[in-house]
């Protein structure tokens, strides 16, 4: 087993540029200045967001009127900003929980924790010390498109505004010998990490567009391991979507491969491929909707959070060696708290509202716009992946 763990830590190539080359943007912890209220959009055209709906799909419900994001409520006539409303998927552990905590602690955000295990989420929120008035848990299982549609229906019915959506949840199945599948029969990693989030964000785009908050955004968590322009992204198996033939075939492992590129099943590759889809999806959203809606679309690599539940399916020896390896050898390690602060920064820091960006942090923990690999920034692949994905989730 030791050999197995050691072997799995041997990289294929080392002559790869490190992440972290482009211009550093200074950290700015200031919250949105009240002057931002001047930038509020009065016109929320949703024409760009209309999409064909299948029979049975959840339709937008009438949303109860909410407090305007900025109002002149104080006796001195000072403008105040209402609490931002942010949905975070997979907020029951790891990065999602740490981000929920970081945002809730500011007192400026209400976090909707979109989780598949209600009790686990409730316990996690309590043990993280998130106070009751700052969070709501809503059920969401991304491995079921029905559940995604139900969540969207429930969210719309709640009457809450949607200012930021964070697509964070993920599964990683590196030791699986055979593929497992979502309720609709898609390979589980791509089905959960990409297709579930794809449907969720498409159905909630209209709500984001309606937000009158100074900055509204859709954030999809990416990763270094999906980017083959890095050392980490060159550790085999490498991400590669190929010509998307497996995705087009429905990833069902029956009449089509369970892998996006049509190859043999490999759980670690499926995860990395799903992260490439996440990063391509963010950019395709940006190209299609940013100009018209003003929504910020962003992705990020928060650092290597080697202690999270993401590695729960890995062999015990890997889980033992991985944190010290990342801490002392690659120095890519980041704590859950620090990673949560980074993602919270993308949610709420006015200096990180540029759209179409993949954020990373340097060793001094300063954010910068990072370069994506050739495949993860290929516009043609992004468009084809988008078109196939919308068929698979029943939007086209
Ligand atoms: P965790 O396993 O701690 O968190 C993943 C979360 O996703 C959990 O809350 C889990 O819920 C949830 N989840 C899994 N499947 C589903 C589902 N079907 N429906 C709803 N929720 C689901 O891992 P991390 O915090 O590390 O991962 C968070 C994000 O960070 C992922 O997108 C990952 O790709 C990314 N990332 C992580 C890195 C790392 O080093 N850890 C590095 C780079 C990116 P439950 O608690 O019920 O299991
Ligand atoms: Mg990697 C700078 C080098 C670096 C960084 C930042 C990471 C991050 N890794 C690096 C290097 C290496 N890793 C090297 C040289 C090796 C071979 C010894 C190596 C191995 C390795 C394995 C076996 N690394 C891994 C694994 C996993 O199973 C993790 C994975 O791919 O999950 C998908 C992983 C990771 N390394 C990272 C990060 C962030 C991960 C995991 C999380 C992710 O992408 O979500």
TrEMBL record:
Function (record text): Phototransformation of protochlorophyllide (Pchlide) to chlorophyllide (Chlide).
EC number: 1.3.1.33
Name the record gives this protein: NADPH-protochlorophyllide oxidoreductase
Key words, A-Z: Chlorophyll biosynthesis, Chloroplast, NADP, Oxidoreductase, Photosynthesis, Plastid, Transit peptide
CC terms in the record's Gene Ontology section: chloroplast
Protein's UniProt keywords contain Oxidoreductase: yes
Pfam families according to UniProt: adh_short
Highest taxon listed in the record's lineage: Eukaryota
Protein's GO biological process: chlorophyll biosynthetic process; photosynthesis
The keyword Oxidoreductase belongs to this UniProt entry's keyword annotation: yes
A single MF term (Gene Ontology): protochlorophyllide reductase activity
Broad class of where this protein is predominantly found: plastid
Catalytic reactions on record: chlorophyllide a + NADP(+) = protochlorophyllide a + NADPH + H(+)
CDD domains tied to this protein: LPOR_like_SDR_c_like
Pathway membership, UniProt: Porphyrin-containing compound metabolism; chlorophyll biosynthesis
Subcellular localization: Plastid, Chloroplast
Top-level enzyme category: oxidoreductase
Family to which this protein belongs: Belongs to the short-chain dehydrogenases/reductases (SDR) family. POR subfamily.
């Amino acid at each position: 087993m030791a050999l197995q763990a050691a072997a799995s830590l041997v990289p294929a190539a080392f002559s790869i540029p490190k992440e972290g080359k482009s211009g550093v943007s200074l950290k700015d912890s200031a919250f949105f200045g009240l002057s931002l209220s001047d930038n509020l959009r009065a016109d929320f055209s949703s024409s760009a967001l209309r999409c064909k709906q299948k029979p049975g799909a959840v339709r937008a419900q009438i949303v109860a009127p909410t407090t305007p994001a900025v109002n002149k409520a104080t006796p001195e006539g000072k403008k105040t900003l209402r609490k931002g409303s942010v949905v975070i998927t997979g907020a029951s552990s790891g990065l999602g929980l740490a981000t929920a905590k970081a945002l809730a602690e500011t007192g400026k955000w209400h976090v909707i924790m979109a989780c598949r295990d209600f009790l686990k989420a409730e316990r996690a929120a309590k043990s993280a010390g998130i106070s009751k008035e700052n969070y709501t848990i809503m059920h969401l299982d991304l491995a079921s498109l029905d559940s995604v549609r139900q969540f969207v229906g429930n969210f719309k019915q709640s009457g809450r505004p949607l200012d930021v959506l964070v697509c964070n949840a993920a599964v990683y199945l590196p030791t699986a010998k055979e593929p497992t599948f979502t309720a609709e029969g898609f390979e589980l990693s791509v089905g959960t990490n990409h297709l579930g989030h794809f449907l969720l964000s498409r159905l909630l785009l209209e709500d984001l567009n309606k937000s009158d908050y100074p900055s509204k955004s859709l954030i999809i968590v990416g990763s270094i391991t999906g980017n083959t322009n890095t050392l980490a992204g060159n550790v085999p198996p490498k991400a590669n979507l190929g010509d998307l033939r497996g995705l087009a075939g429905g990833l069902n492992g029956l009449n089509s491969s369970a892998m996006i590129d049509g190859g043999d099943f490999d759980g670690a590759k499926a995860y990395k491929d799903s992260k490439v889809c996440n990063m391509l999806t963010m950019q395709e959203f940006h190209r299609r909707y940013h100009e018209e809606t003003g929504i910020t679309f962003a992705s990020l690599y928060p650092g290597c959070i080697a202690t999270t539940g993401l590695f729960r399916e890995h062999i015990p020896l890997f889980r033992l060696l991985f944190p010290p390896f990342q801490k002392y050898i690659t120095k890519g390690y980041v704590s859950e708290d620090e990673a949560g602060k980074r993602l919270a920064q993308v949610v709420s820091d006015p200096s990180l509202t540029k759209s179409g960006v993949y954020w990373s942090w340097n060793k001094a923990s300063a954010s910068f716009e990072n370069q994506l690999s050739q495949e993860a920034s290929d516009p043609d692949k992004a468009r084809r992946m988008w078109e196939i994905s919308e068929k698979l989730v029943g939007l086209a």
